[in-house]
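Exam review. A common question shows you a sequence with its structure tokens and asks you to describe the fold in words. Practice with the pair below. Do the first one on your own.
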Amino acid sequence: MFEVLLNKIKKKEALIGIIGLGYVGLPLALEFLRKNFTVIGFDIDEEKIKKLNKGESYIKHIDSNFIKQAVFSSYFKATNDFSKLKGVDVIIICVPTPLGKHYDPDLTFIINTARTITNYLRKGQLVILESTTYPGTTEEEILPILCETGLKVGEDFFMGYSPEREDPGNKKFTTANIPKVVSGVTEKCLTLVETLYKHIVVEVVPVSSPKVAEATKILENTYRAVNIALVNELKIVFEKMGIDIWEVIEAAKTKPFGFQAFYPGPGLGGHCIPIDPFYLTWKAKEYDIHTRFIELAGEVNTSMPYYVVEKTIKALNAQGISIKGAKILIVGVAYKPDVDDTRESPGLKIMALLEKEGARVDYHDPYVPILPKTRKYKFDKISVPLTTEKIIQYDAIIIVTNHSNIDYSFIAEKAKLIIDTRNALKVKGLRSGKVWKA
């Protein structure tokens, strides 16, 4: 089984099946296609399947042309018929791993996916988990489910873990040129995983076990979460001292060693940084360890939307305006600049908090024309245009996401009051009290 599958992978004859065609799964599928593999994409979202099979992209930074070419040349097909898993040689799982209501890991998607795979798992297949999760998930949660089939890992089928490192919208780093950490449950499993990814990425980094690979991903994002929490806290401290945190960071990053710049903001967004550290804190409790440092960072970051709202209320009061009934425009609801991804966006939390205070809230985002329903929020709103007639209607404008294609000078000129959470306004000569940094 091993030699047959290894040769298929080496010759690019292995049929690749990718489960979950979102911000991780779709770019991965396209990279395999670019390297001349044949790919079947699996998803439960019928709209995604219809669009892909028409050659259309539903993710802003992914061009439709290559999808169309792959579909029409029969190298790629999307489907919700999971019985086709039986025919693929490699199954890669790229489904969400969100948090529950109480910040505990929600493995529903990957557990359900594993159970679906068991219906079709056969000898000679390689299964790889890419979804971010806590150390131990691959071997403690997913592997036992697959072994319920009676097949033996390392002999009949093979399994590994390789954490995704996607950064949506990043033009410098893409799937192909980001080193890939790889692992396997057994030596043969690792060999297969390593050989597979060597075809599509610039470098593979093999590690000793799936636990190490899982911990690597958690470390990467916890590192960022902790450092962002630090500058968020310092922003509040320095503000009390009359010091601009942004100026401090610009000065500090001139040091050529021992410092990496992180920037404050209205809260964390995206599917990784706001979530992954909590996966580790949850798992640590199994070992009677209380991760105080990580949990404190989480508290700081999750408090930032509340800080922005408090700052907005204070700024409005200074203008003699009550938050109740105030008209407020949120500029940017994507979780970071120049993408259409609203997952865990602090902008949504800020909108909900403002409406709870009685404000009337609209938003503008060139990449999000209609607010999608999320696990937490269901707003019935569409993006309003940034025109003079619109801007002057609002009592305050809050800049949450600093998209590069927004004219901030125009906003600064027309708006009555601006709360800038991203240091987007670098316009001199503004009326005192018109711009508040938050």
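Now try the second one, then compare your answer with the model answer below.
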Amino acid sequence: MLRPIVRFQADAIAADVSAALLAHGVVIIERLADPALCDRLATELQPWLDATPVGADSFSGRNTRRTGALLARCPSSVAVVAHPLVLEVVNATLWPKKTTYQLHLTQSIAIGPGSDAQMLHRDHWCFDMFPFPRDIDVEVSTIWALNDFVEANGATRVVPDSHRTPDSEPYTAADTVPAEMPRGSVVLYLGSTVHGGGANTSTASRIGINVDYVLGWLRQEENQYLSYTLDEVKQFPEHIQRLLGYEVGAYALGYIDGGRSPMTLLRQGDPGDAQSFAPR
């Protein structure tokens, strides 16, 4: 019998969520975003979804639309990108984290009717298929539901407990469970957890917001420095600027001008942040 996904309510304790995530590779927090926030996100996102082309291959989804750079295109996404509970869970989960973690990517994913199931994969394969030891967790992925996720409309399919198994493990669709969850909920899974978008056999698109986080000493999947202009970045709250990567990722990683933190550029040269190496 397949293991069900562990579920929490919106008032969950971060340490409990992190413990379950580390134990099973995937958790769901139900209704973490309220209906008003979901409405704002959907309204801001719609023009971009309309303008986004479908994927070019079966992995991206030939009837799936993926829109990135959400912090500028969908301003209300700040609330999910920097949700305090999610960030606490990420901070407690990623290892070996000695200094920072950062935003890996933001994208909306609209799986259209008639879409096939996505190939099962592990998100940390983006790092050139590097075989990370299975006791190292470098990435936490999240998908927020902007409409109810059910099996019929392509709810993300996950293999619980797959995060500690080798890459060679031959998982199939029969090993997966759908991350069914009500609107406003979020599924969190590790970069090593096997998963994939589900097949959409319904008549409407399944729309989610995918936000991933990664250790500060790894390259980001979405290039955050070219996704937003410097003027746009300067308008973001400081904690978003840091998540984007505008602080030193570890000692001497990502500095400017021989040792300054990039945050000094955003703060117009404030020397007080020149050694911004403390964990965030």
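Model answer, second protein: The first strand starts at residue 6 and ends at 8. The radius of gyration is 18 Å. Full marks require stating both points clearly.
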